[in-house]
From TrEMBL:
Functional pathway: Pyrimidine metabolism; dUMP biosynthesis; dUMP from dCTP (dUTP route): step 2/2
Protein name per Swiss-Prot or TrEMBL: Deoxyuridine 5'-triphosphate nucleotidohydrolase
Entry cofactors: Mg(2+)
Record-listed substrate binding positions: 63-65, 76, 80-82
Domain dUTPase-like span(s) in chain numbering: 12-142
Alphabetized Pfam families for the sequence: dUTPase
UniProt keywords, alphabetically: Hydrolase, Magnesium, Metal-binding, Nucleotide metabolism
Job description of the protein: This enzyme is involved in nucleotide metabolism: it produces dUMP, the immediate precursor of thymidine nucleotides and it decreases the intracellular concentration of dUTP so that uracil cannot be incorporated into DNA.
Reactions catalysed according to its record: dUTP + H2O = dUMP + diphosphate + H(+)
Gene: dut
Listed GO biological process terms: dUMP biosynthetic process; dUTP catabolic process
Organism: Muriicola soli
Recorded family membership: Belongs to the dUTPase family.
EC nos: 3.6.1.23
Length: 144
């Protein structure tokens, strides 16, 4: 699939790191380093603008290493970039650690997955089909 992209950063375009990677790393586009204090959140721009085909979205997800090692994650995971959005991709980062974290220009801050999606049409009914789970909610299927 070919996707139109504008890159207003001085970093290379996002790319898949391996042949089986689902996501591409996004890099921070910063004039100056940004400090993210404990429990603080900020939008970090990437300098990237996309034109996705209708029926597709770009999902913005945390980088597992950054989350596990530093406590830095994407706040609205996954963030969604819709096909009709033409603004700059910004990533809402939050620091869940007890230490400040400094984000440098070019740092890999999140990953982006391109995914297809369906549009739903609601069919209003009076009852739903029965299942073995029924109305069991959080944790109702056990721990195995």
């Amino acid at each position: 699939m070919k996707i139109k992209i504008i890159n207003r950063s001085h970093h290379s375009l996002p790319e898949y790191e391996t042949g089986s990677s689902a996501g591409m790393d996004l890099r921070a586009r910063l004039e100056n380093p940004v400090s993210l204090g404990p429990l603080e959140r900020k939008v970090i721009n990437t300098g990237l603008f996309l034109e996705l085909p209708v029926g597709y979205e770009a999902q913005i997800r945390p980088r597992s290493g950054l989350a596990a090692k530093r406590g830095i994650t994407v706040l609205n995971t996954p963030g969604t970039i819709d096909a009709d959005y033409r603004g700059e991709i910004g990533v809402i980062l939050v620091n869940l650690s007890h230490e400040a974290f400094v984000i440098e220009d070019g740092e890999r801050i999140a990953q982006m997955v391109i995914s297809s999606h369906e549009r739903a049409t609601w069919v209003e009914v009076q009852e739903l089909s029965e299942t073995s789970r029924g109305q069991g909610g959080f944790g109702s299927t056990g721990t195995r």
